[in-house]
Amino acid sequence: MFERFLKRARDRSRYLDGPFAAERERYMAHLCSEGRTEGVLAEINGLLLTIAERIDVLAGSVTREQLRAAAHEWIKERAASNRTAGRPKNAGRRFTSVGCAWFRFLGRLSESRVEMPGSDLLNSFSACLLDECGFSPVTVQGRRECLQPFFCWLEQRKRPLSAVNARDMSAYLSSSKFASLRRTTISLHVQALRSFFRYASGRGLCAVGIAECIDAPLLYAFEHLPQGPDWEDVKRLIVDASGETPEDIRDRPILLLHAVYGFRVSEVRQLRLEDIDWQNELIRLRRSKHGKTQEYPLTQDVGEAMLSYLKNVRPRSPHRECSCPCHSRSGLFRGRDSHQ
């Protein structure tokens, strides 16, 4: 499991020989099955080792306060050794949240059993999102976290859900809680509220039409995304990879999969030989977020490029997907510079 995120043998040895490797590996496998992205998995993998080096996982139950204290000491150590570069401002909170999730998974997190407002409704709503709507557990957990403050707000005002109206929603979204939030974060809360009120109104738990009355902040398409290359530049990249060297023959199908289908880097890396249906001219891709398999027509250019690579360049290997620990260019697309 650790080999998936670590390229250097020295780093892999450190993670394998570090404390509580079995418990860390078991939790990482669980997160992979939930469809977490590669970047998030790599971050959590690093934090788990940091936590394991500071807290005895098997000594007994651990409280959130202990994790906060360990996070505080970790931040102080990094500051004292001038190793704060590359760490986000919320590193301490991430340490605590990842630690809580890990110890909860291991059954060793000591949590207060105080019933939060709206717990029963949130449980039934979450079950609906998981079982009927097919949402990923990560998405469902995000919706719950957005809705919990709303139920606390209702509890403080002794306002039952059945009496909530559009004026209440306007007052809630105008409260001080949202004053310092970004528009994108507010939009996530609005999505969760709209989704919940559609669910609640469909079951007669609240007035009809509240979801449509919740205004979301204006978001501009692609405002936070880096601009991609121009199409002319993409075409030049593909032309430049039209040579006969092993590297060009390997790179051309990779570029075409990105340009023609819009596949993510992780999705191209995870392609297996059996994902290409040559007889029916299809590519089958398992989406990392929701775990569903999608089919795409195999175009002639992409098919010929992949066939040329498989026949002429890809070395013999027992690995059928991106799981080979011996080189960063592993998986279906491994050039001649890979481990033989």
Key terms:
disordered C terminus, 3-stranded antiparallel beta sheet, globular, mainly alpha, two-stranded parallel sheet, 340 residues
Strand content: under 5%
Radius of gyration, in Å, reads 24 Å
Query: Counting H and I runs of at least 4 residues, what is the number of helices?
Result: 14
- Mean pLDDT over the residues: 81
Work out the helicity level.
40-55%
Distance between the termini: 21 Å
Shape: globular
Secondary structure tally: strands:
5
Tell me the major beta sheet: 3 strands, antiparallel
SSE pattern, N- to C-terminal: HHHEHHEHHHHHHHHEEEH
As laid out across the biggest beta sheet, the strand order is 3-4-5
Tell me the quaternary state.
Answer: single chain
By helix and strand content, what is the structural category? mainly alpha
- Unreliable segments of 5+ consecutive residues: 322-330, 335-340
Short description:
By secondary structure, this protein is mainly alpha-helical. The protein is built from 14 helices and five strands.
